[in-house]
Amino acid sequence: MERIFFPLPPLTEQYRIVSEIEHWFALINQIEQDKLDLQEAIKQAKNKILNIAIHGKLVPQDPSDEPASELLKRINPKAEITCDNAHSRKLPNGWSKCHLKDALLIIMGQSPNGETINQINGIEFHQGKLYFSDIFVQSSNVYTSEPKKMAEKDSILLCVRAPVGIVNIVTRSVCIGRGLCALKPKKGNSKFYFYWLQTLQNIFERKATGTTFKAISSETVKNECIALPPLAEQQRIVQKIDELFSTLDNIQKALEV
Length: 257
Description:
Mean pLDDT: 92
Helix content: 40-55%
CATH superfamily: DNA methylase specificity domains
Number of helices: 7
CATH class: Alpha Beta
């Protein structure tokens, strides 16, 4: 170290250099903090959009839409369309309260025999959120030759073991293990239910039980209440959310450049 040469400015210039560096570093730190604040604001904005959507305030109601009660009767004549929770009070016109099991086919995962799991061929296998992205489940490099429980194409995969409540949409049929639950709309838009289920994450977390691993049961999932809009309004809600989220995502990408 003693033999290393470096250019040494005059003492007064050293002070000016230090002052200038500190000025620019302070500015850079402020920009970085502003970026973090904006990223948090984007996250909060998305949560607010979802909250507004599930309360029927994101898009206007259309009196000509078939009421959700008629939709429920058609897909499940035995559906209980009267349940209550914080989300489903003071329903907009045409909306109905129901349990998730009334609108969705729900399949709890079951892990295949360990000897059938490999990384070469068979049915694609998912155990948790390892291959989750923002919306769609990415391809796994894990397979099983003897699947126990299958999630159909366009199902929503829900994490039922820690971390509880995280969701993604799968665009192909896959095998699911105990850490996941598959929810397939009996009639309607998978993306609508994907957005709805995101608002239930905190509720599922509060209802989770267990000491080593927090988990929720099939009954907890099946009996959770939602406020269901008419099918046509579901489409309008998804379209509006996609539009708003796209704008926010573009801002997010600009921050990462």
